[in-house]
Structure formats: C-alpha cells, structure tokens
C-alpha cells in the first residue's frame, strides 16, 4: 500500500515537473522550430508546431546576407582568447593562494570579488575613449583584454577553490624527494589540477560567449561577436522571424551543449565556491 | 613550510593578477571621476573646461534620473522576487523522486545559457509582439484583445524576460544546496511526526539560507547592470519608462556624446552599487559565517 502511494506521487511529480520544464524551455524550442519555417509560416495564424514544410533555407540566407560565419569566429576568438589569457594569469595566483596562504590571502580574494561589484557603466566612458584613441575599438584584441579583466576574479576564485582540495601533503612529499618548484608544478600539481582547470575553462567560455555589455558597446561590425550580431535584428526590415530564429539557434547551440555538460561547475564557479 | 623563498615566489605569482585588477579598478575609475567634473562633449572637441559639480547637478535634477533609479531598483527587486520564490519552488519539486529528472533539469537550466540579446529578441518578437506574437495569438483565440507588452508594460516585460533568464540559475544553486541536505535528518524529523510544512520551515529553509543569500548577492550584482535586454527590446522607452541607470549612462555617453554628464552618471551608479553591496555584504557576512 505504502509503495503504491509513493509511486502515485512519483507519477504526479513527473507530470508536474515535466510540464514546468517544457514551459520554461518552450521559447528555445519554439525558436529552434521556427528556424525551419518559411517567413510566411513563421507568422501564420494559427501557428503550427511541427506540421509545416521544413526548410534549411534560413540558415543559408543568414550566412549569405550577413556573413554569419565571421561573427561566429569572432565569438570563438574572443571567448577562447580571453579565457586562455585569463587562465595563464590566474593559475599562478590561485596556486600561490592555495598552497602558500598568508594571513592576507582571504582579504586579497575578497577584494578580487569586490571588483566584480563595480557596475560596468562606471568605467564605460573612459574605456570607450581609451579604445577609440588607441585604435582598439571594434577589434578582437580589445575585447579579449576587457573580457579577461572582467572574468579574472571568477577564474582566480574558481581555480582557488579547486586547488584548495588538492592535499598539500602530496606537494610536501614531492618536495622532500627533492623536486624543484618547477618540477612540482609540472609533474605533481598539473595532473591533479587539470579537472579543475578544465571546469574553469568551460564556465568562462560560456560567460565570455554570452557577455553583452562590452561586446555591444565596443564593437561595430568588424569584430562584432554573435551577441552584437543578433542585436542588429532589433530593428529589421520586412519579415524576419525565421531568419532571426536560424541566427539565434546557431548562436546558442554550442553554448547550450557546453553548458549542459557543466551544470555542476556552473554553480560552483558563479557562487565563488560558496555552493558546491 | 612557508619559507622566505616560497613566500616571495608566491608573491611574484600573484603579482600579475593583483596588478592587473588593481589597474582595472583604479585607472578607468579615476578617469571617470575626472571627466565627471568637466564639460566635455565629443561633438565639441577642444572645448573642455572644469565645471565643478555642474554635471552632477544636471544629473540629479533630471527627472529621467529618478525614473532610472526607480527602474533599476524595480528590475532588481522584481526579478529577485520571481527567481528566489520560483527557484525555491522549482528546486523543491526537482528534488522529489520522478522519472527523467536529469532531462527536466536540462530543460530548466537552458535559459541561463542563452545570450541576453537572443533571449530578449525572441521574447520581444515571437512572444510579446502584439500582431504576430504567440501571446497575441493565444489572447485572440480566447476572444481577448492582444496586449502590447513592450509599449504598455515595458518595465514588467523586461522584468519577465530577465527573470526567465535568471530563474534557472537560482533553481540550480538551490537544488545543489538541497541535495546536500542530510536524508537522515529529514527521515528523523518525519518519524518525530513533523509535517511537511514544519519540515520545510524548520529544516529545509534554514539549510537553504546560505544558498539563498548567495543567489541574492550574485543576482543583484548582475541585475543592477541589466543592459542588452533593454537595448534590443524597448531601447529604454517609451520615453524613459524602461531606462535603468546603466542604460541612461550609455545613452548619455554613446548617443549624446556627453562625456562629462555620462561620467557623473557612471559615478552615481558606482555609489549606488556600493550602497547595495555594503548592505548585501553585511547580510551575507552574517549568513556565511554561521
């Protein structure tokens, strides 16, 4: 009897949870489906969910009309570039804070966190002028620099929480065996740190890919990543729902897949290790 | 263990991060402060002059400024209300035994991974558009007149769009925290005759308090600076009805080329964020230490 009640509850839970899940996901599903419609079908009333003439035309048209691939590559270059640069700068810092902590380490970490609280508009004007005067406006390099800086605190924090979990005794043992600092890092620490570094990399690529303040304000066309490219659809001419959907689907698909693989790291990274 | 040698090595390893972040904090902010005391318009080069607090006076007497402050706080509080309450509810639901839990979690987390410009444009055009949007179709099919969301309720529409993006993150954090709650404690409470409601208020909610504070902290940081969603949907309008502080400063700087005025606005935004952060850190300091 008891088992019967609980399996009944399980079915109710399933139905309710799936309904809410599908409702929350629906805008994405709808975008995906619309990307395969013709423009006329995209605004047809009543709308059709699945039974329309599927076409890939929108995808080709988005590429032909606005050189989609260029913006895609800008997104790739900017998100990977800023993430790798950030890791190169942050790994030594996080290593030092995790394995050679001083009484000030916690303060340094909290100070780094506090830099994230500065609203970007506080420095929009000088950054825009600096970029304009140094020719960095609308360049990939400029955006890589900015995104590295804004995500650096998150990278340091996330690496720090991962490195903290590596037992210090192992390092001491290596040191006793006469390993130098360089050897210690290459042969002992690196293999144990790789999973944490990989998670940090993944999360940071997602954050950089979706960043939509600096990318919108500091690019025009040449270096515009997908965030800025999609924004150009905000004042379109003529029918455009299907093309907007196709462009959107291509812009979100890679990150959606990456994100699904890294749900756990998402929580950990964005809560600065406070929730695991 | 920490010899003098390792300590200086550690300092050298931290130096690049610390120096870069320090420069990033100090240099542009100092420039913003300096510009905020100048009359400086990009359309009138060479006319810069020191005007003291004029830019601040202009900003603080502009009705658009008060609207922007109100809108900024309304977006933060509105979205927090939806995401925290909705997130607790969803996390509790997803923590129950069910079929296909992993898939539901994947569906729920998805909006968080969508770039803000895509999310806002999809909602604006395919759902909220009063002619071709899905909501208009649904309204018509039950005999109601379609509602023009972005013209008649611009702020509410933006709150809904932003809440849709951030609800998953709140849910995910709260669910992660919930799953670390000891099963035995729940069972013990159940055996002692605690009902579902008292188990929630005396056991689950206190356990979640740390996660809830973290959600509030992180959401507030990001929500104070909502920008892309406004830019691609309402452009701050109609009028200034959906202009928040971030958008106001952007418009002043990059649409009106008023460097001085925009800088003053930027400094006010920094001060506002600091006030909010001060209270948040106090609140969070208490919870995180406990």
Automatic annotation (TrEMBL), chain A:
UniProt domain ABC transmembrane type-1: residue ranges: 72-262
Subcellular locations according to the entry: Cell membrane
Main localization (coarse): membrane
Membrane-spanning segments: 12-33, 76-96, 108-129, 141-163, 184-209, 240-261
Any single biological process term in GO: transmembrane transport
GO cellular component: plasma membrane
One Pfam family named in its UniProt record: BPD_transp_1
Membrane topology (UniProt): Multi-pass membrane protein
Any coiled-coil regions, as ranges: none
InterPro entries from the UniProt entry: BP-dep_ABC_trans_perm, MetI-like, MetI-like_sf
Domain of life: Bacteria
Sorted UniProt keywords: Cell membrane, Membrane, Transmembrane, Transmembrane helix, Transport
Family stated for the protein in its record: Belongs to the binding-protein-dependent transport system permease family.
Protein known as: Sorbitol ABC transporter membrane protein /mannitol ABC transporter membrane protein
Automatic annotation (TrEMBL), chain B:
Transmembrane helix among keywords: yes
Cellular compartments annotated: Cell membrane
Record SUPFAM superfamilies: MetI-like
CDD domains: TM_PBP2 (cd06261)
Membrane-spanning residues: 12-37, 68-94, 106-123, 155-178, 211-233, 253-280
Membrane topology designation: Multi-pass membrane protein
Predominant location category: membrane
Entry keyword set: Cell membrane, Membrane, Transmembrane, Transmembrane helix, Transport
UniProt GO cellular component terms: plasma membrane
GO aspect biological process, one term: transmembrane transport
Keyword Flavoprotein on entry: no
ABC transmembrane type-1 domain span: 69-280
InterPro entries referenced in this protein's UniProt entry, alphabetically: ABC_transporter_permease, MetI-like, MetI-like_sf
Family: Belongs to the binding-protein-dependent transport system permease family.
UniProt-recorded name of the protein: Sorbitol ABC transporter membrane protein /mannitol ABC transporter membrane protein
């Amino acid at each position: 009897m008891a088992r019967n009640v609980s399996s009944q509850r399980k079915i109710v839970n399933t139905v309710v949870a799936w309904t809410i899940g599908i409702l929350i996901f629906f805008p994405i599903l709808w975008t995906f489906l619309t990307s395969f419609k013709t423009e006329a079908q995209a605004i047809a009333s009543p709308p059709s969910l699945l039974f329309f003439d599927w076409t890939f035309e929108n995808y080709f048209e988005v590429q032909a009309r606005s050189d989609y691939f260029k913006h895609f590559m800008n997104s790739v270059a900017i998100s990977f570039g800023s993430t790798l640069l950030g890791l190169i700068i942050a790994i030594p810092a996080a290593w030092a804070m995790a394995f050679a902590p001083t009484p000030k380490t916690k303060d340094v970490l909290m100070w780094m966190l506090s830099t994230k609280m500065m609203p970007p508009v506080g420095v929009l004007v000088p950054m825009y002028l600096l970029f304009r005067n140094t020719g960095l406006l609308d360049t990939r390099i400029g955006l890589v620099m900015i995104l590295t800086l804004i995500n650096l605190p998150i990278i340091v924090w996330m690496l720090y929480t991962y490195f903290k979990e590596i037992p210090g005794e192992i390092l001491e043992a290596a040191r006793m065996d006469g390993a130098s600092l360089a050897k210690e890092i290459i042969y002992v620490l690196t293999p144990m740190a790789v999973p944490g570094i990989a998670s940090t990399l993944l999360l940071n690529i997602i954050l950089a890919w979706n960043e939509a303040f600096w990318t919108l304000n500091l690019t025009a066309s040449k270096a515009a990543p997908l965030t800025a490219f999609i924004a150009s659809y905000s004042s379109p001419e003529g029918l455009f729902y299907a093309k907007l959907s196709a462009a959107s689907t291509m812009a979100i698909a890679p990150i959606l897949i990456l994100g699904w693989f890294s749900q756990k790291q998402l929580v950990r990274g964005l809560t600065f290790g406070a929730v695991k | 263990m920490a010899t003098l040698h390792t300590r200086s090595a550690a300092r050298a390893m931290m130096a690049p991060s610390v120096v870069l972040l320090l420069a990033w904090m100090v240099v542009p902010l100092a420039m913003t402060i300096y510009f905020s005391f100048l009359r400086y318009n990009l359309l009138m080069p060479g006319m810069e002059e020191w005007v003291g607090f004029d830019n601040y006076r202009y900003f603080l007497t502009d009705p658009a400024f008060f609207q922007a402050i109100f809108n900024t706080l309304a977006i933060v509080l509105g979205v927090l209300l939806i995401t925290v309450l909705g997130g607790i509810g969803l996390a509790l639901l997803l923590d129950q035994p069910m079929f296909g839990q992993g898939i539901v979690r994947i569906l729920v987390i998805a909006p968080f991974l969508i770039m803000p410009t895509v999310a806002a444009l999809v909602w604006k055009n395919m759902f909220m558009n009063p002619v071709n949007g899905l909501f208009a179709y649904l309204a018509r099919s039950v005999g109601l007149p379609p509602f023009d969301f972005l013209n008649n309720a611009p702020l509410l529409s933006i709150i809904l769009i932003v809440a849709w993006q951030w609800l998953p993150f709140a849910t995910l954090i709260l669910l992660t925290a919930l799953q670390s709650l000891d099963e035995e404690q729940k069972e013990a409470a159940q055996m002692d005759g605690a009902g579902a409601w008292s188990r929630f208020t005396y056991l689950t909610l206190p356990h979640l308090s740390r996660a809830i504070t973290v959600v509030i902290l992180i959401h507030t940081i990001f929500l104070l600076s909502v920008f892309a969603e406004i830019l691609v949907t309402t452009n701050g309008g109609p009028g200034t009805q959906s202009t928040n502080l971030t958008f106001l400063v952007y418009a002043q700087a990059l649409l009106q080329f008023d460097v001085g005025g925009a800088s003053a606005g930027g400094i006010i935004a920094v001060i506002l964020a600091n006030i909010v952060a001060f209270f948040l850190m106090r609140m969070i300091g208490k919870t995180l230490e406990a």
